[in-house]
Amino acid sequence: MAKNLMSLSGITYRYPGDREAVINGLDLAIPEGAAMGLIAPNGSGKTTLFHLMMGLLKPQAGVMTAFGRKVAGEKGFREVRRRVGLLFQDADDQLFSPTVLEDVAFGPMNLGMGRHEARKKAREVLSELGLSGYEDRITFRLSGGEKRMVSLATVLAMEPDLLLLDEPTTGLDHDTWKRLVAVLQASKVARLVISHDFEFLEQVTGSLHSLEGGKIVMDRGLHLHQHAHVHQHGANPHHH
Length: 240
Ligand SMILES: Nc1ncnc2c1ncn2[C@@H]1O[C@H](COP(=O)(O)OP(=O)(O)OP(=O)(O)O)[C@@H](O)[C@H]1O
Prior knowledge:
The chain is built from eight helices and ten strands. The protein is globular. The longest helix has 14 residues. Strand 9 and strand 10 form a beta hairpin. Helix content is 34%, strand content 22%. Helix 3 crosses helix 4. By secondary structure, the chain is an alpha/beta fold. The chain has a domain of 62 residues. Bound molecules: adenosine-5'-triphosphate. The site of adenosine-5'-triphosphate (ATP) has 10 residues, from helix 1. Pfam families: ABC_tran (PF00005).
């Protein structure tokens, strides 16, 4: 049986001041090699779930394990953040260095890589994402789509064991969308992808999950290629 990269059991989170828990007794297992899509309505708690998995929010109840260990306290989450790459829903939460190269090299340097090697790694990843020539661009002046791809570069440069992608296709033009699909299809890194873009999920994930009443609803045996009705219901308003 495949080992789990991460597993969540009975995780509950209620925002301060809210009456109801947005995540409510949630169970989720992410096995090695997983490529899971998470498609659920606005406000159902998808981003909250990612923030809980990264330790950016602390659950009121539940147990989380990552890479074979129970995650407890800040020390545990530091290890999680080293090995799990979160692409934030808003690229402005991700990017903070003046130039693109510095931003992409920051993660590897933070993991202990020397400056020269980190910059080399950053150039490689930028090239893989079709971003060669962006090295010296001023990060905050990039377009929305460019910021999203540079954000992905900052995540991939850290060679994560698990990718958590929060609506990665927002703002991407058709060619960039296709490039992102190709990059993810060529990558073996396990992933959990939040998206409202059904076509994208179909390309880069192998199973679909939803979030209802604060719990993960497993794919109910419905596999992506049998999901024609989702198209008809217009779950994805985008056309590529
Ligand atoms: N900091 C916060 N304080 C209070 N409530 C919050 C906070 N952040 C999110 N919420 C609420 O928690 C619920 C879930 O939000 P979340 O962003 O996790 O949803 P989502 O499924 O990612 O939505 P979307 O598809 O719109 O991105 C929403 O009702 C939201 O208003």
